User: Which sequence fits this backbone?
């Protein structure tokens, strides 16, 4: 990154600050409103299960299109062209997977977390511990990644020192979650999602207008700048095995605990299904727009300029907004980019708090015997604890190469959570021992393979060559988890396990 | 959270439970079949896209019309197909699956 170029190219000015302050004020008002309606842990964790399909759908979509989707994917397309599209198709596919296989059953079997689902199916405290560990590690990885990103982004856009930015963002997140719970978190996410769709739509229309509303002309203009290679695969994803492994790992989104948790914020499984359709519709439209925006940035701003401001291409959309709509529009886009991080870390934090207090404290330590007052107290302590740990780690990880966290998070989601969850819902013969083996294999395998990969061996330890030349271990860890869970289940299966499955099926279909 | 599975006191209840278990199995099986059929279609399209991107780079670079390559078409198809499948599932579930589930809950309560 070149700070001079940044200062020259990205003059966000007062619009950005005003727009961001308006966002914060509105969302704090929402938090105040939500706080007055919050009476129970059910209100705190899952917004009293009162969200509508449209509201939850927008929030689910918003959960996914964070800074990575908004700035990252458009930037990747602006730099590498076609290969960036892998992140578009995979997102929509992952949410369809969740809609078809998971969301209704998860809604009907669980209470607050996906660990509830596995616990109800397998009745083994060990599986709850493992699911909670997996969820907590994902929560921490997401908070760190987002806060470190926020620190640099706010620095780049508002010229605020890194650690101040991280502390401000972390504190606003804590206020949303601590006082407004899931209700405030969901509304922050909805507001952000709508704003982001508006920005994507406006920028895409401006790009199309610049090409005479001719889609082919947008691509031709990009090819004229960077060569026709940008309209075909190959500039960023060079190894077939890596491409397929990344493609598989990206489907792990369907097993992310903070996305699954939103299934509990609606009244029933039918609403959960409808909300997933809303989310998929939003994502489909969004990624069409982002493809146009990405290619538009390539030709209108130019890859060289984008890379000059920030090496990863994350500033492609803000630069394009500046070019097309001037400084005021850039300010608006910058404010939304920062707002999206706030919305996303809040959603992740409440999931972490629910896991720590509901799964670990209430269920495992207190064996479900905690009163409502204690539950709420523990939930809030967990929120503050996780929030503060996140802020401290966010400051400590400044300037670190966190690519390994992205790889690790994808791999854990696709190989620790997804296989066991799918088997638990669809396979009569799954046993607790099989599920435990599968989860341990998914978690341990992901950690080990990431450690052996270029992300740690070359990027962090500066070795000449990695032990395994695979940046996305999903292609190994996910099948491994499936196979081990199946083999151990077959070896330990007893008739009683299968008999219980009929009750599970009944409850998956019609609820408690 | 207050279900008590297998708590059948007399034979009448037991028979109803058995009929109900059979109905549950049928509805669950039908839902699985639909969901997995759509999942397989999704995975075929998605992995076809990944494989084409990895192994058929020359084919993907062909321009269909000015500016639109096969790759762009395939990329857009990969984004739109999940939405179409979601729409099919939503309509099937709203129309057929929910009615079947309602029958099971009525039998359970009657």
Assistant:
């Amino acid at each position: 990154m070149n700070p001079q170029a940044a200062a020259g190219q990205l003059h966000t000015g007062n619009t950005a600050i005003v727009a961001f302050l308006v966002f914060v004020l509105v969302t704090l008002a929402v938090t105040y409103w939500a706080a007055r309606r919050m009476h129970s842990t059910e209100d705190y964790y899952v917004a009293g299960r009162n969200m509508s399909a449209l509201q939850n759908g927008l929030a689910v979509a918003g959960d996914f299109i964070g800074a990575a989707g908004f700035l990252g994917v458009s930037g990747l397309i602006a730099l590498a062209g076609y290969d960036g599209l892998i992140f578009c198709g995979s997102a929509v596919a992952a949410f369809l997977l969740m809609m078809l296989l998971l969301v209704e059953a998860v809604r009907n079997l669980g209470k607050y977390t996906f660990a509830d689902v596995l616990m109800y199916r397998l009745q083994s405290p060990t599986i709850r511990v493992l699911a909670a560990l997996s969820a907590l590690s994902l929560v921490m990885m997401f908070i760190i990644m987002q806060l470190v990103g926020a620190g640099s982004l706010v620095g780049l856009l508002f010229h605020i020192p890194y650690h101040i930015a991280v502390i401000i963002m972390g504190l606003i997140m804590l206020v949303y979650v601590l006082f407004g719970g899931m209700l405030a978190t969901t509304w922050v996410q909805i507001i952000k999602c709508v704003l982001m769709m508006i920005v994507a739509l406006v920028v895409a229309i401006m790009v199309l207008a610049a090409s005479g509303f001719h889609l082919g002309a947008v691509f031709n203009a990009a090819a004229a700048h960077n060569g026709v290679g940008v309209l075909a695969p190959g500039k960023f994803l060079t190894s077939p095995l890596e491409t397929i492994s990344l493609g598989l790992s990206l489907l792990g989104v369907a097993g992310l605990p903070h996305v699954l948790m939103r299934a509990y914020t609606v009244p029933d499984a039918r609403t959960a299904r409808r909300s997933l359709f809303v989310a998929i519709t939003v994502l489909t439209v969004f990624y069409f727009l982002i493809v146009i925006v990405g290619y538009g940035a390539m030709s209108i701003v130019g890859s060289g300029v984008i890379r000059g401001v920030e090496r990863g291409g994350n500033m492609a959309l803000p630069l394009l907004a500046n070019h097309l709509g001037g400084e005021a529009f850039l300010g608006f886009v910058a404010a939304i980019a920062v707002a999206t991080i706030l919305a996303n870390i809040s959603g992740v934090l409440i999931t972490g708090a629910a896991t720590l207090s509901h799964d670990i404290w209430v269920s495992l330590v207190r064996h479900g015997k905690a009163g409502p007052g204690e539950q709420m107290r523990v939930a809030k302590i967990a929120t503050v604890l996780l929030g503060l740990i996140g802020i401290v780690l966010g400051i400590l990880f400044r300037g670190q190469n966190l690519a390994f966290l992205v790889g690790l998070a994808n791999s854990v989601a696709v190989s620790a959570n997804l296989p066991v969850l799918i088997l638990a819902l669809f396979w009569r013969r799954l046993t607790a021992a099989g599920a435990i083996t599968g989860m341990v294999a998914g978690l341990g395998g992901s950690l080990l393979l990431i450690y052996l990969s270029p992300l740690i061996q070359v990027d962090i330890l500066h070795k000449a060559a990695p032990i395994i030349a695979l940046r996305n271990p999903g292609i190994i860890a996910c099948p491994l988890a499936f196979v081990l869970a199946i083999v151990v289940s077959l070896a330990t299966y007893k008739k009683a396990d299968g008999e219980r499955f009929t009750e599970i099926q009944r409850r998956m279909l019609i609820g408690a | 959270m207050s279900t008590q599975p297998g708590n059948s006191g007399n034979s009448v209840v037991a028979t109803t439970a058995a009929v109900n278990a059979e109905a549950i199995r049928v509805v669950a099986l039908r839902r699985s079949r639909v969901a997995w059929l759509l999942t397989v279609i999704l995975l075929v399209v998605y992995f076809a896209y990944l494989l084409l991107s990895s192994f058929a780079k020359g084919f993907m670079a062909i321009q269909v019309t000015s500016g639109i390559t096969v790759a762009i078409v395939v990329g857009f198809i990969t984004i739109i197909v999940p939405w179409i499948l979601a729409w099919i599932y939503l309509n099937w579930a709203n129309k057929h699956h929910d009615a079947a589930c309602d029958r099971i809950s009525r039998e359970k309560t009657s």
User: Anything to note?
Assistant: The mean pLDDT of chain B is 85.
